[in-house]
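Our collaborator T.R. sent over the components below with a one-line note: 'Predict the complex.' Nothing else. No constraints on interfaces, no templates requested, no preferences about which chain binds where. So this is a plain run: every listed entity goes in together, and whatever single assembly comes back becomes the starting point for the next discussion.
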Amino acid sequence: MGASPPPRHEASRVRRLLGAAAFPALFTGLVLGMAELPEFGDPASPASTHVSPRFIEDAAAETGAANMVTAVLADYRGYDTLGETAVIFAAGLGCLVILAAAGGRPNLPAAGMSHPFGSVILDAATRILVPVVLLFAVYVLIHGHISPGGGFQGGVLFGSGLIMMRLVWGPAHEGGAHHPDVPVFGPSLRSSLMLACAGILGYAGIGLAAMAFGGEFLNYGTLPLGSDPAHVRELATLGIEAAVFLTVAGTVGVLFDTISIGMRENGVPIGSGRGPRE
Amino acid sequence: MVAATLTEGIAVLLLAAGLFFILAAVIGILRLPDFFTRLHAMGKCDTAGLSLSLLGLALLAGDPAVTVKLLLVLVLVAVANPTATHALARAASRAGVKVWRPGEPAEPAGER
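Returned assembly:
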């Protein structure tokens, strides 16, 4: 890239000096703080003597989730998981802002590879595999109560199904104008972003709904979903997992599309069949 | 009893055949001269070796649920593995990866 770096002015120099001073201070503080932590896996640590036995003994009866990891992740520590989901969402947004805005294009452009891969074998295999992958993603989401899985894993699987379609079939276009040979499947970049937004809003919405019915934020017990409290928590946990699923799947779509747009605009001939020949 | 032994015998034969093909794939990756020939060895022998091994394991798995899962994995491997090999070869060919001809020195594995 031939663009010269923007001129540095005093404010940014002061800011960099402040950053350089803050980093060692923060680093030292964190290292000193870590020295106070109990040994990893120490059986006498509070986590092993108080928290773990409680989860192991009560999780299934209290939350209705046979998979204890899901019970902890989406119920007991739902606030943590909301933060994690927000971090994933922020990563997608950051990628979008940096890569799509760097091209100087205010509108979200048609995303995907610049050209379909154009192979009958790949096309046929993708037609068989993509529905299976997407269905399996939903299975992993719903089965997360019982077996390893849940919203994060299911969402990534769903996103990989979307990426497979993009890689083989090329771009998804906004509106009607598209190449006649390209089947348009999968959400556009805009729709992926909507999915991710819907997921994170849905997660926070479930937490706020619990507040509206007289409980604490993300304490699902008060939601009017039935009389059995464990069943109510189970349903709410499934809602949380579905929200995480939407966020992760949407963010994977946003990441792939913004990166492929960035590569196309920088002239990387990915999938275009115009690679260098020796 | 005889039936169980027969099933086990067939399973062991299938596993042995699967391991043979996987060994052939490994030798092919190490010994063949360029990307395309190595891919050829890997794609074919990996698919055959994995399929045979999975068949043998499916025979040995007592639980029908496990058997069905193994057979589903088998179908996935049978579709995905050759397709991925094809995609790699096509991408390499389009990107102009050099094709080895008899008489030329071989490219060592892991370099390009």
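Summary for T.R.: Chain B is about 80% helix and 0% strand.
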